[in-house]
């Protein structure tokens, strides 16, 4: 299994584990907060993930196990972050609590928002998430497979995305990511140039290549996310030519594209919309997700005011994704 940690980080044997108790709809926002405050990695325990599982080969040696017998959170979700000794965790916990509570202002339910912490060894951190992740079919043709699992496709058209979920920012199982993967399947025709904004784990970039796009340029404002994505790209030979670097949305990017994807919070999509319109070729598509129900009208309005035509609105639970395109002048 690959890791994105530096040699300096590998020498640190004690970490502080910080866990935020929340709701499924807020896991990506909480993950962003924890990473923004210096976390070296996150894992997500979500009751909804286990609700989808059926008895199958979930044991360490391929044995058949009922998901009910796998230790997991019963309701809601918990996001756990790991901080090295260089971060004084007691100092940032009040900030975590405050920012999690403020998610209500953005239409998200943070649940109790309770924050707990404890010291853990490096070895425990390295393996903590493995028991929670298994191959998951996320669309009609795409299956996300943890990097340590051996998995054989069940159908001829099934394609595999290998990820290291322990260091990932988006594992493919959360509704917002699934919406974008479904949208990619609907839109990609082949040979497109793609800009992946807020790439996180790199899952959308990898999926785009598997679906037949020609070039992918991926960006994330978080250096840790970029390194996470780089490691995941290495796990997927099809992704070897993806260009990836740190960047704030599309600021300063001059590359034109046929397709732009963004799985980020609605408040961050708003300033991206004019940038996406400028960088899209005529007839190109803009796919965005991370939009809670209360923010759908806002994003639709911003898209239409910019000149986009909304082609499709997708929904999973309380989350929405939007497929928009840049029309030709005679439309």
From TrEMBL:
EC number: 2.1.1.-
Tagged with keyword Signal: no
MF (Gene Ontology): protein-lysine N-methyltransferase activity
Binding, S-adenosyl-L-methionine: 177, 198, 220, 263
Gene Ontology CC: cytoplasm; ribosome
Reactions the enzyme catalyzes: L-lysyl-[protein] + 3 S-adenosyl-L-methionine = N(6),N(6),N(6)-trimethyl-L-lysyl-[protein] + 3 S-adenosyl-L-homocysteine + 3 H(+)
GO BP terms, alphabetized: methylation
Ribonucleoprotein is among the record's keywords: yes
InterPro entries (alphabetical): Ribosomal_L11_MeTrfase_PrmA, Ribosomal_PrmA_MeTrfase, SAM-dependent_MTases_sf
Localization per record: Cytoplasm
A Pfam family the protein falls into: PrmA
Keywords: Cytoplasm, Methyltransferase, Ribonucleoprotein, Ribosomal protein, S-adenosyl-L-methionine, Transferase
Primary role: Methylates ribosomal protein L11.
Similarity remark: Belongs to the methyltransferase superfamily. PrmA family.
HAMAP family on file: Methyltr_PrmA (MF_00735)
Protein name, as recorded: Ribosomal protein L11 methyltransferase
Organism listed in the record: Paucilactobacillus wasatchensis
Lineage of the species this protein comes from: Bacteria, Bacillati, Bacillota, Bacilli, Lactobacillales
Gene: prmA
